[in-house]
């Protein structure tokens, strides 16, 4: 069982913290890697837990079977042209909106096109729904970790509003 997520340790609470935590793509990847493999990298193919090689910042290579694992593979952040900093910024805005945030608001807040803003919100919503379904079928995947993290973050933020 995973430990409870802790505010200020597992997710930022203040906007100042948020900006400090996620200044660039590298910081976002480091964070997502920790979220995905809290106890260190485990190969999704051979299940060996060992220090992987790093091909690029986002691509890890299993030292046992040489499987290439991407930190974002299988998540809503995979194969997207939107920077991770923007994705997390959208999550930040979503966490305070109890009844959801509009694509228009996101567009203005993070400076993307309306279409991109809409798509990001849509992807987050799909991840939420998928996570609910997974809970029923018993499988745990990265998006679920992400959603769990997001919900814990949202809970603290709406409480302190
Ligand atoms: Zn492996």
Report how far apart the termini are. 30 Å
The largest pleated sheet is described as:
3 strands, antiparallel
Give the SSE string.
HHEEEHHHH
Rg measurement, Å = 16 Å
Shape: globular
Global mean pLDDT: 86
* Strand residue percentage: under 5%
Structural category is mainly alpha
Strand order of the largest sheet: 1-2-3
Query: Low-confidence spans: pLDDT under 50, at least 5 residues?
Result: none
Ligand catalogue? zinc ion
Number of strands: 3
Give the count of helical stretches: 6
Helix content percent band: 40-55%
What's the SSE blueprint?
Elements (H helix, E strand, L loop, with lengths): L14 H7 L3 H12 L16 E2 L4 E3 L6 E3 L13 H13 L6 H8 L3 H24 L4 H18 L2
Antiparallel strand pairs: 1-2, 2-3
Bound molecules: zinc ion.
Tell me briefly what this model is.
This protein is mostly helical and 161 residues long. It has helices spanning 15-21, 25-36, 84-96, 103-110, 114-137, 142-159, and strands at 53-54, 59-61, 68-70.
Salient structural properties:
51% helix; three-stranded antiparallel sheet; 5% strand; mainly alpha; binds zinc ion; 161 residues; single chain
Q: Any overview of this molecule?
A:
It is a single chain. 51% of the residues lie in helices and 5% in strands. The chain is mainly α and 161 residues long. Among the domains are: 37-75, no CATH class; 76-128. A 3-stranded antiparallel β-sheet has the order 1-2-3, with no helix packed on it. It is globular, with a radius of gyration of 16 Å. It starts with 14 loop residues before the first helix and ends with a helix. Zinc ion binds at residues 43, 45-46, 48, 62, 64-65, 67.
């Amino acid at each position: 069982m995973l430990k409870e997520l802790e505010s200020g340790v597992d997710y930022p609470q203040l906007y100042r913290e948020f900006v400090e935590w996620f200044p660039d793509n590298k910081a976002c990847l480091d964070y997502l890697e920790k979220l995905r493999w809290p106890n260190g990298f485990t190969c999704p193919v051979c299940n060996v837990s060992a220090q992987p090689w790093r091909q690029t910042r986002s691509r890890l290579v299993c030292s046992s079977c040489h499987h290439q694992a991407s930190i974002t593979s299988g998540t809503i952040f995979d194969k997207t042209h939107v920077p991770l900093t923007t994705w997390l910024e959208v999550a930040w805005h979503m966490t305070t909106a109890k009844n959801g945030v509009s694509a228009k608001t996101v567009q203005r807040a993070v400076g993307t096109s309306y279409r991109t803003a809409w798509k990001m919100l849509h992807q987050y919503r799909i991840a939420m729904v998928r996570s609910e379904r997974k809970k029923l079928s018993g499988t745990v995947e990265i998006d679920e970790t992400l959603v769990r993290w997001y919900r814990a973050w949202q809970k603290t933020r709406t409480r302190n509003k």
